[in-house]
Design brief:
The structure is a homodimer. Chain A is an alpha+beta fold. Chain A has four domains: 8-139, Acyl-CoA dehydrogenase/oxidase, N-terminal domain (Butyryl-Coa Dehydrogenase, subunit A, domain 1, Orthogonal Bundle), CATH 1.10.540; 158-280, Butyryl-CoA Dehydrogenase, subunit A, domain 2, CATH 2.40.110.20; 289-436, Butyryl-CoA Dehydrogenase, subunit A, domain 3 (Up-down Bundle), CATH 1.20.140.10; 453-587. Helix content of chain A is 56%, strand content 12%. The first copy, chain A, contains 20 helices and eleven strands. Chain A has helices at 8-18, 34-52, 56-62, 77-86, 105-118, 120-139, 142-153, 282-287, 290-318, 342-374, 378-409, 421-429, 438-449, 452-472, 477-505, 509-513, 516-545, 550-567, 570-579, 583-586, and strands at 65-67, 70-72, 157-162, 178-181, 187-197, 206-214, 225-231, 233-235, 241-244, 247-252, 263-275. In chain A, the strands form three sheets. In chain A, strands 3, 4, 5, 6, 7, 10 and 11 form a seven-stranded mixed β-sheet that branches. A two-stranded antiparallel ribbon of chain A has the order 1-2. A two-stranded antiparallel ribbon of chain A has the order 8-9. In chain A, helix 1 (8-18) crosses helix 17 (516-545), helix 9 runs parallel beside helix 11 and helix 11 packs across helix 14 (452-472). The first copy, chain A, is globular and about 80 Å long. Chains A and B meet through helix 10, helix 11, helix 12, helix 13 and helix 16 of A and helix 10, helix 11, helix 12, helix 13 and helix 16 of B.
Chain lengths: 593, 593
């Protein structure tokens, strides 16, 4: 059975030596000294390893079961959820006013990586609650906040997000669920929602559904959509639970993976709902939590790759098969371990260099969210808004690929469920789809984010890379050659793609849209290239100071060199595809397919 | 539920207009007039669509069950197998001396594509039997042939291949199964084999296991391995079934996919086996059927992509979501179909251009096998031997990617098992692993095949491309620009990679091996580029003759242009990775991971 060990040393390296969070000028960061963060991650790591990881296979094999209208989670989930709750792990970055610990989002993100790697399906119950918490925290009335937030911070009550209906996912303007105003100010919600993660279960006292619906008579399409709080059990004045609301589980979906999470069809039959935020402004309310939610999904992508990599590495060191062509490495054994073979090494380096680069990228993004929220920094908000589709789309695509590569290291055993490698790939697969399928992320990036605020944020990104290159250059020739030169070339490819869109996209929108997916990946590679340059620079600095673990730091630099040499060249191909334009993509009429 | 319709028109185009099989100078090909082949494919297509495809989901959900030592296949499999058998579909290219129809392998391959696309797990029962048939046909004594082949041609008796043991897959020299000689000339086989596809089931009267084992006292390692025929039921002199042999099913593996095929742990407890071919030359006997078997797996890769594509296309035409940015295409409906969106179109074109290119590549390879066997053409044999790892490795990797893309077109529904798209990806995944994991294919290609016969075959490949480019050039400027220029550039990248290996691989074997995987993909792209140029050329010819379906032929050219513009640029990145050499790959010591 696979295992998971939290890579605390790697996490600390990013937080402290690369992002230097303790010294960042963001409220709350001043308390993030090395020891405190280390203690949090060490403790969380134990929960991940000892409580959550052992339940990962259990969740996959047992799945969730709907019995007499009630969802039963896999054996052990409820106890584990209690432990997570009691350890305060659900409250890390929540508002102290409602019982939270008020820690920065970046720290909660690092813990989230551990929990998600250990057991993705399990961690979603908490993750969705956090999303709903954020929406109520931002848009709720004082009453709503007082009623719901304290129990959601502790996950005594969990949350869900209800967007999709059978006939509409991305295009929510087609929505049919309706919300009829009642005399007491509440609404009666009627309709069916599908793909509702954590839609119902037996681990909390109440489930707080956030439901998009249309108030009759409102504007057509997406502009007439409002957001409602629809609790499973109505809440009395004194905060105690009242009647069962008219919401029920239609069925649990049979999915490719994340079997431990109950993905429900939810039926609303005149259920009582409370408007959250303004009427007809439901999408805006939903979108305020999108950056955070999508970053969380990007995190899932590399977190699954991390745990898959850990197990592939262990197998590659353990399994004896064939001989090193340059001379036996295990001459007394019947064969050498797999890791001696260059192609296995290539695969492991692909995985390792992706995961570590992705981690830095996501923590950087989380710090940007903290900066946007805690410093009300509009530039940071614009930048993270631009990068969100890259984080979500690129990291989940590549994360899934890396899970597939990790599975491949096992040969035939990778295909047998007993070994657990298939589950990592099957679980990771959903991250490419939910929270906006990756094609929609690419559309969001190219069709919306690039031009946002007059293109200000993408220019800020280019400036950031440019200043970094200028400032880092000239200190170390080997570093310049291995890191800065490839980063500069990749960044040039990205600018070339942006230029192509500017010159052609206005006239022919399809010229930009046909290249959107490649652009998202091109952007992602540049970001990981930038992260690797920063990590290598940080490793060099710590090495020069004589502190730290030299072998660990050298490994960081070697891993980064691999990414720059072997992964970053992809940017040239992405640019070439983009520059081939819309014509080859759209040449066939739909009828000619 | 997904459906499958055999793409007979596309298949016929490759066979007749591109490969022009009816006029090829290979014995048996002279009878392959258009009408005969069309009739075969039409009939087979009906079986695939009406008998096999409807059982695909059934096979996945029910799986195979081991009860009291006997394997039960999913409901409907036995009837379907009877229909396939009675239709003569198992005997297509088998030797008429043993009841076969003596058709060329290339025709059986086209039918195999249909059956495999319709139901991969089901078609493996027949596929493995064919592999075992070929081994006995090539290496068996007259008695062995007379005893086993007639029943295997009809699949009254099915076959298996037993190579892997728990501690060894690729490195078969570590094998422990032993074969003790008996006085009557037979051997007693003792040991455990794992991952035995179609290892046991209820659809045939007997199962003929081909088992690799070591005769005590023979050479160490791989040179001491022999191949044995071990029937489930011993066969009496008169051909009737005798006693149950001492072979049993230990368990059925729980796998990621191909649940309809019984993947068994087989226990041999002093089972009676008959030496097939020479003692200690078991690997040679196994390898004679490797080209064919690996081509068959490459076929599975693109066949799953074909059926996944068919369903993604139907969904993209049907599902209404969002609007075409260039103006509504379905103004009277609530939204436009998915297919109007450029990124969906990109995905569909990726899939379509891959599948059609792969089909031509595999049929070309099958014709090469026919040429090697029927004309005893050593050059053809060398060429197909070189290309086999490319066909197997490249087509299964890309085929799986395309299944993933097809699944992505469905958005959330792609993740729900009910829609069937997950199964295509899960089933296709095994093709990257079995018959030699794709990393081993890359090793075979670079470590063995490139240098085989003094590098003669790779030079022959380069010559083939070069002559083609010279001969095709100058007839049509648009064709030259869209097809020949990119093919030339890609082929130059391939030669550059070959050159890099020559200059560095002798001194530093790892310099070649670290680039082996990229080389396999680079080679694959060049092959598909070559196939697309040939297909476009053929389409142009038919168009010029005024015959054929103009819309169909123009779509071929457009699809080819897409491949050349959007996929072929990958060769540059592969070359760049290869030229970065072994250093970045091997820089980290195994202990530093």
């Amino acid at each position: 059975m696979p295992t998971y060990n939290a890579p605390v040393k790697d996490q600390m390296f990013v937080l402290n030596d690369v992002l230097k969070i303790g010294t960042a000028d963001i409220p709350g960061y001043e308390d993030l000294d090395r020891d405190t963060v280390q203690a949090i991650l060490d403790e969380a790591g134990k929960v991940a390893r000892d409580v959550l990881a052992p339940l990962n296979v259990v969740g996959d094999t047992e799945g969730c079961v709907l019995e007499n209208g009630v969802v039963r989670t896999p054996k052990g989930f409820k106890d584990a959820f209690d432990q997570v709750r009691e350890g305060g792990w659900t409250a890390l970055d929540c508002d102290p006013e409602f019982g939270g610990q008020g820690l920065p989002y970046v720290v909660a993100t690092a813990v989230g990586e551990q929990f998600s790697a250990a057991n993705m399906a399990f961690n979603m119950y908490q993750g969705l609650t956090h999303g709903a918490y954020s929406a109520i925290h931002t848009h709720g009335t004082e009453d709503q906040k007082a009623t719901f937030l304290p129990r959601m911070v502790t996950c005594e009550w969990t949350g869900t997000m209800n967007l999709t209906e059978p006939h509409c996912g991305t295009d929510l303007g087609l929505m049919r669920t309706k919300a009829e105003p009642q005399d007491d100010g509440s609404h009666k919600i009627t309709g069916q929602k599908i793909f509702i993660s954590a839609g119902d279960h037996d681990m909390s006292d109440n489930v707080v559904h956030l439901v998009l619906a249309k108030i009759p008579g409102g504007p057509d399409g997406i502009k007439g959509v409002s957001l409602f709080i629809v609790p499973k059990f109505l809440v009395n004045e004194d905060g105690s639970l009242g009647d069962r609301n008219a919401v029920s589980v239609g069925k649990i979906e049979e999915k490719m993976g994340i079997h431990g999470n109950s993905t429900c069809v939810m039926n609303y039959d005149g259920a009582t709902g409370y408007l959250l935020g303004e009427a007809h402004k439901g999408m805006r309310a939903m979108f305020t939590m999108m950056n955070e939610a999508r970053l969380g999904v990007g995190l899932q992508g590399y977190a699954q790759a991390e745990v898959a990599y850990q197990n592939a590495l262990a197998y590659a060191k353990d399994r004896l098969q064939g001989r090193d062509v340059t001379g036996a490495k295990n001459p007394d054994g019947p064969a050498d371990p797999l890791i001696v073979h260059p192609d296995i090494r290539r695969s492991l380096m692909d995985q390792k260099s992706f995961v570590e680069g992705a981690r830095a990228f996501v923590y950087w993004g989380a710090a940007m969210i903290d900066r946007a929220h805690r410093n009300s920094d509009k530039d940071a908000d614009g930048l993270i808004s631009l990068m969100t589709p890259v984080i979500k789309g690129f990291l989940t695509d590549r994360g899934f690929d890396m899970c597939t590569q990790a599975q491949q290291v096992y040969g035939g055993h990778g295909y047998i469920e007993e070994w657990g490698m298939s589950q990592f790939a099957r679980d990771a697969r959903i991250a490419m789809i939910y929270e906006g399928a990756n094609g929609v992320q690419a559309l969001d990036l190219v069709g919306r984010k690039l031009a946002q605020d007059g293109g200000k944020h993408v220019m800020a990104f280019f400036d950031m890379v440019k200043s970094y290159l200028a400032e880092a250059k000239g200190k170390d020739e080997a570093f310049d050659k291995a890191f800065l030169d490839p980063l500069k070339a990749a960044s040039k490819d990205l600018q070339g793609a942006g230029m192509y869109f500017m010159q052609n996209g206005m006239k022919t929108p399809n010229a930009a849209l046909a290249g959107s997916y490649d652009f998202m990946h091109l952007f992602g590679h540049v970001c990981l290239g930038l992260m690797w340059a920063k990590m290598a620079e940080a490793a060099n600095e710590v090495l020069a100071s004589g502190a730290g673990d030299a072998e660990f730091l050298k490994a960081k630099i070697d891993t980064g060199r691999y990414y720059m040499a072997r992964q970053l060249p992809m940017t040239a191909t992405h640019l070439k595809r983009i520059e081939s334009g819309a014509e080859p993509v759209m040449a066939l009429e739909a009828e000619a397919f």
